Amino acid sequence: MITLQTIIAPEQAICSEPDLYYRATAPVRTAQGRFTLPAGGEITFDTYFNLFNLGTWMRVCALTGLCLELTATGRLEIRIHHLPGHGGKTLIYRHRQTLSRATPYRVDLATLLAGEETGLLALEILAQGTEVTLQDARFVCRNSLGKTVGSTLGSTVQKLPRLAISITTYQRERKVRDTVARLQRFLAGFAFGDQIHVQVIDNGHSAKISNSRRVSSYSNPNFGGAGGFARGLLEAQDRGFSHCLFMDDDASFQMENIRRTYMLLALARDPATALAGAMISNRHKWQIWENGAYFDGSCHPLFNGTDLRQPGAVQQMELASDQPRPATYYGGWWFFAFPLARLRHHPFPFFVRGDDISFSLANDFSIVTLNGVVSFQDDFVEKESPQTLYLDLRNHLLHHLIFARLERSALGTARIACRFMMRSMLRCKYESAAAQLLAWRDVMQGPGFFDRNIDMQARQRDICTLIQAERWQEIRPADLVERRRFSRLPRRLRHYLGLLSLNGHLLPFWNRFADRMVLEIKDRGLVFPAFGGARLTYLNSARSRGYRLRHSKRRFFALIWQMTLTLLRWQRQYGGLKQAYRRGYDEMTTRAYWEEKLQRSTAKVAPDTPDALNVRGAAAGTEPKPGLRAGRRAGESTGLRNVPLASGASGQAAEPPTGPRRETTAAPTTAAALATAAPRRLSS
Q1: How far apart are CA 630 and CA 598, in angstroms?
Q2: Nearest to 120, CA basis, from 174, 176, 187, 51
Q3: What's the CA gap between 661 and 30, in Å, rounded?
Q4: Which of 151, 260, 462, 622 gives 20 to 30 Å between its CA and that of 56?
Q5: Contact criterion met (CB below 8 Å) for 587 and 628
Q6: pTM of this structure
Q7: Which of 341, 210, 332 is nearest to 265 (CA)?
């Protein structure tokens, strides 16, 4: 029998929310994965981590002989419920039994289901008369897995996938070492652990991970997540892996993630099957941040805000997750497993932000999600800054320039940039808006800009010069003094006042009579909480640090003027930019491009030799040469020159692709060029 999924208990260091694992009528003790119930107690596993999504497993995999196995001690009643897609639940199995640890108990689910392949399954245990300890429980099947494709005694033998787990890290030494150690311990006891290898791509040259039979570490130039995952992809291809799993270094997860992922990929009917892990915020470990997402003008995280403590909400989400996906569905790289055979494009050099979106859109994957396969990490509100907003706007514009299914008119695409900037300015985040204006102008330089700025060092310095007020600092008592008038208005009235007055920017003397507000971290990414305010103090999660922003009409209208000029240039250049990015994307997402940028040896290791599982890292991770051959090819193929976009400068249209390409610099689009739109200091 092959284990598909096990019933798991909370791990204090990762998630201690019991309602995500079980529901009980009496206190339950959990230790080392075991559940101990007092006499008369009931425990139900119709929860996010422990229900079995029959619909997803049967649709994605050709399962045979599905069963439930459990090991327990004591007299208990075993119940199994089927939750169909049309609501309600059906008790399909009920049996009383006295069990000992030496006698595992098996329930033939395939017979009970009688061909039913949709809905959810949930285990329930009732302790009868005495204390009961559930040692373990697991869903298993009779499929055969082997190293070759053939037939054994009438059962199809599926080829074992070889999975490379690729973790890109940058100066999170302790976190990545802990993750690698936990992975090694799990793989040592996992039935298919020998088919899985961990790759650590060390962009910070500081992780100091030792190579072993199960782990390889590679020193890599810091080209962000895009460069790190591109390196991991090259290593996985060269060493004969069939699948790759991208993971962030700041993500926490239970090892059951790896089991469920590997088994789903191993038994998948469709060789294009990929699995996208969900994300839960460390701020609210009971709430889904994203369970898959799609892109259209902005990122749309699916099931955002779902309360995983509520069984009905979990069941609704899981039943819906088995439905057809949007055409622009994608998986986040905090946990994304995919088949290398379906790879058509390597990552685009975004540095970070948006590389996972374009990767899913550009490659022919059939992406699914699975309950319990999830990463816990800081959400995007916690991470928001002028730099992340700069990076976000770049990738949003590029997706619409590159992919035909997302194509919009010039004005329709420009609305994305205008919306980004207006959201910032209405919250008095003028430095963020200036960074977003810089992002828009950088995109207008064509794909060669991304090649020249692959390490983002110059742009990071430029953005840092913009940031004076929007940085975390110590809070003074005076910053916490509030004066609320407009923010006490009825919600609808406050909403329309904020919109029609552009949050006071169209009203005289707004600084004199508008509100002074203190806003929590949950309000940081939203516009409405800022409506009615002229002085806004944003606090971090611990309320220990924050920053204060103040209304400024001068800054607001200076940015509006610069935004208008940029919009006019965008309108003129849009057709040429679109052609340039579609050609440049094809050239900058190739294996050859990343081989050159990473200055990596092209020598390959045979997939089944010991060296394939015990690879010596680091030697190939030298800093790249300053040559821009790939970027020049992209520029030459489109005929685009770098477009000067300094304040007041007129943009150049795309030139015909004839004659030599003249090299110019990207200097006009610097923070200095935006000084009139974003003075370096805010009045306090």
Answers
A1: 12
A2: 51
A3: 67
A4: 151
A5: no
A6: 0.85
A7: 341
Q: Residue type at 329?
A: Y
d(CA 432, CA 423): 10
The whole-number pLDDT of residue 601 equals 57
C-alpha 435/C-alpha 388 separation (Å) is 9
- Distance separating alpha carbons of residues 256 and 251, to the nearest angstrom: 14
Q: Which phi and psi angles does 75 have, rounded to 5°?
A: -95, 125
Q: Which residues contact 601 (CB under 8 A, 6 or more apart)?
A: 619, 620
Give CA–CA dist 404/385, Å, rounded.
Answer: 30
Rounded-to-integer distance, Cα 40 and Cα 491, Å:
49
Round to whole Å and give the CA distance between 90 and 540: 46
Angle at which helices 430-443 and 457-466 pack, to 10 degrees? 150
Query: Can you tell me which residue has the tokens 């390959």?
Result: 604
How many Å apart are CA 282 and CA 55, to the nearest integer?
Answer: 29
Nearest Cα to Cα of residue 242 among 143, 359, 338: 338
194, 259, 365, 371, 394 from 273: Cα distances, Å: 22, 16, 6, 16, 29
Listed range (7-21, 231-245, 269-283, 645-659) with the worst mean pLDDT: 645-659
**528-538 per-position pLDDT tens digit:** 999 999 999 99
Pairing of strands 67-83, 132-141: antiparallel
- Residue identified by tokens 């610099």 is 665
Whole-angstrom distance, CA of residue 473 vs CA of residue 165: 38
Question: Rounded to the nearest 5°, which phi and psi values hold at 608?
Answer: -110, 10
pLDDT digits (tens, 9 = 90+) for 13-30: 899 899 999 999 999 999
Burial call 122-148: b when 16+ CB within 10 Å, e when fewer: bbbbbbbeeebbbbbbbbbbebbbeee
Distance CA 233, CA 639 (A): 31
Cα dihedral 604, 605, 606, 610 in deg (nearest 10): 180
β pairing state of 132-141 and 2-6: antiparallel
